[in-house]
Structure formats: structure tokens, C-alpha cells
């Protein structure tokens, strides 16, 4: 299925700015002017977003090493993510009903990450194997984190520290929560 654009749903708006994300969290480029795709990522705990960012795909590829990218792709290709998907009726909400990896229903996930790829004012909707948007529960996030190379983890740590006032590991009772881009 070819990805198709829809107007960015409210869920992928910035809570902080009460509207669309305007700037890349990393390089500050204007996301609503430049023709470069960007990812909107949120970490949600008990239905409340505790961390949000929009980051252009150029920043993502400079942070996530080739080695990491290859490991994530290999991991996902073993999972048969296309199961139970009807590409003809697929909507953005389908991507958020359950964890991409273990299929645990969203209502049962206490902590999870959602991520959607956008271009200008639109969300690009696509089914696996190139999903957007998607949800990853915290158990699967920690599993995926182990695939991140040391270099990628250090890049992300530096990136998040440089650019945010609050580190993403906001919840004290929880382990670190790495952003993972599939
Ligand atoms: Zn950027
Ligand atoms: Zn999961």
C-alpha cells in the first residue's frame, strides 16, 4: 500500500504549542515550510502525554546509526507485521489500536510511544511494513532499545539533553525510554 496523506489529527498536534509542531526539535528547521518529512513522537503514560517532539528525518538519520537501522529492520522483518491487515480499508487509527510488535491493545498499555510521519500539514498514513502512525508499548520499547547501538544511544542522549529542558525519563519508577524509529 502506498502511504496517503490526511490532515494531521489532533493527537499529533503539540500539546505545548496548542497546534501543529512548527520546528524540528533538533535543527530548528521550519517544518511547515520545508518539504522534508518529520516524525511526531509522544510518550504517553496513563493516557497523558509526558514527552513530545517533532524531529525531521534528516536529524533522525544522523542520530540513528546505520548499524541500528539494520538491526531494527531485521528484527521487524521477522515479525510478519502485515498479518491481519487489510490495506484497502487501513486508516491511521488502525495503526494506534495496538502495539505494533506484540499487538497488546492500547487500552491495556500503561506506557507507550506513538509516532507518526508527517509532511508539512499532513500525516502520511501507511500500513506495515512501513507503518505510520504506530504505537509501541513500553515492554517492546525496551526490547527495541537493546537493538540500538551504543553510538545511537549516546547520540540520542546528547540530542535530548541539548534540546529539552526536561529529560524524557520523566517517570521516576520507570527505566529509560528511548525514542525508536522503525
Ligand atoms: Zn532536524
Ligand atoms: Zn508491545
Walkthrough of the structure:
This protein has four helices and six strands. The chain has 182 residues and is α+β, with helices and mostly antiparallel strands. The chain has one domain (4-163). Strands 1, 2, 3, 4, 5 and 6 form a six-stranded antiparallel β-sheet that branches. The chain is globular and about 40 Å long. The chain starts with a strand and ends in a 19-residue tail after the last helix. Mean pLDDT is 89; it is low at 169-175. Bound molecules: zinc ion (2 copies). One zinc ion (ZN) is lined by residues 24, 26-27, 29, 55-56, 58-59.
Structural key phrases:
182 residues, alpha+beta, 4 helices, globular, binds zinc ion
Radius of gyration: 15 Å
Number of helices: 4
Structural class: alpha+beta
Strand content: 15-25%
Query: What global shape is seen?
Result: globular
Tell me roughly what share of residues is in helical segments: 10-25%
Largest β sheet strand count, sense and barrel closure: 6 strands, antiparallel
H/E order of the elements? Answer: EEEHHEEEHH
- What compounds are bound to the protein? zinc ion
Low-confidence spans: 169-175
Number of DSSP-assigned strands = 6
Query: Total domains, how many?
Result: 1
Mean residue pLDDT: 89
Distance between the termini: 17 Å
